[in-house]
Amino acid sequence: MTVVGFLQSKWEIATLKVVLCLYIALARTHRVRVWGVPMGKASRDKGKRGEREAAALLREYGFEARRGCQYQGGPDSPDVVADGLPLHFEIKRTERLSLYPAIEQATQDAGAEKIPIVLHRQSRKPWLAIIPAEELLSLLRQVYPNN
């Protein structure tokens, strides 16, 4: 028996449809994925702005950087491409970051040749860089070999 079989009237069926539509609309508004409903345009736009901001930050410090190709996923398509740096940037422009899933995604996409880095920023806050400790210590060893 289906869910509709339990409903007694057309009124109950109509109410269920309205509730489901409101639930999906609320999920889209709050950037939640429900039943495969994709993220909203505003959320995608915020991610793109974050990628442009991160690339601008790298350029501000003298590195050549630009947004990557977002349709592929993998080592050839980081969120931000920084030519000449052995780094894979994953950009997260969100109020709440799921830290371990973000660094796992960056690590998986970085491949064996690049160091995974997650650049994260909340609204009205400075950028933060998240890097696995082993990678940070390896970089420090290269910069300060006598210590």
From TrEMBL:
Coiled coil: none
Lineage, broadest ranks: Bacteria, Pseudomonadati, Thermodesulfobacteriota, Desulfovibrionia, Desulfovibrionales
Pfam families, A to Z: Hjc
GO molecular function: crossover junction DNA endonuclease activity; nucleic acid binding
Name of this chain's protein: Holliday junction resolvase
Chemical reaction(s) catalysed: Endonucleolytic cleavage at a junction such as a reciprocal single-stranded crossover between two homologous DNA duplexes (Holliday junction)
Organism: Pseudodesulfovibrio profundus
